[in-house]
Amino acid sequence: MSALLNSLTLAALAAPSSAPASPAGVTWTLGTIQPAGRGAITPGAALARPTLRLDGSGAALKLTGNTGCSPLSAQAALKGSALVVRGVQAGGSERCTDAALSLREDYLRLLNATTRYDLSGDTLILSGGAGRLTFTRTGGAMTQTPTDSLDGTWQMRVTPGPAGPERGQAALRFTFNGSKVTVAGLTGCNTVTASGALVGPQVVLGPVMSTRRMCPGTAGVAENRLLGLLRAPLTIERQGAALVLRGQSGQLTLTRAPVPATPGSVLPDPAATYTLTRLNGQPAPQTLRPVTLTFKDGRLGGSDGCNSVGGAYVIRAGRVELDGGLMGTKMACADQPDLGFQSFFEQRPTLSVQGSTLILKTAEDTWEFQAR
């Protein structure tokens, strides 16, 4: 098999060539997939589109990208219009839904069978005996940014597309921790969360989870466009102090989120878990789980006594302000007092830290937590 593959590779590279433009140095996103003997298929809007990027030249090309639900890497050889891909590695498929897994299998099969390419403007076609893959350009040469320089939280400054949501309707926060990426915030009418990874020069998110509030008219159109943007791979580019994430339907421009600050007081310890001990001067009510809070990297997390909760926050003028509300699990806890956790934080409580005690106060309630 190895000898046969080498023979095919040499034969493809020896084919006459008119030296067409090279597809290298560009990020390409899959537009359609066409198995042999069938019509072109456009992946559904809910699926993340596979991508690829070729770097290098000649017989020493490096291929990177993703299958839509897993990272992708390979070697490739290019001469004239001949392109041979070999040594494809596509990682595990545990993050793939059934639909994404089907697209992944077709994509990998056709990519492995590629013998030539055609490049016309912003369209790249890879073809072979098994069918063809059609891509569109989604980014040129990107500034390579070390992963650790992205660590921390970034907030959206510009919404996507010329007809995107009006500013103030959508607010997202991206948190990078090594290769891990999490997203939370407001997409217009609904709050959203997602997690994913850095795959080469791209952010690839897993399932994007959102609340289901109705969002009519132009606001709904804008929100759907933003959700569609998040569900496809986003190519990263640094522009000065800004981070630009580009997709097929628009782009997001992010700036580093301000470090939470409480003028005149001590910030919560990011390494501590604060547990509710007193409520309005009385011992905290008994709950299925302890009521807890954590404050780390611009994220408030913990438990409301029943469900796990979390959301982005900032502290302004000594008050805790949620950015996009709190998201939580949906477990039902019978025979447990409702402390009004969500509504308490919606009132922007003041925050103070006195040693290991954290105090949150609204006009009506005082919650006291101890660091553990």
From TrEMBL:
It comes from Deinococcus grandis. This is DUF306 domain-containing protein. InterPro entries: DUF306_Meta_HslJ, HslJ-like_sf, Hsp_HslJ-like. The lineage of its organism: Bacteria, Thermotogati, Deinococcota, Deinococci, Deinococcales. Keywords: Signal. Residues 1-21 form the signal peptide. It comes from the Bacteria. Residues 27-135, 151-254, 272-368 form the DUF306 domain. It holds the Pfam family META.
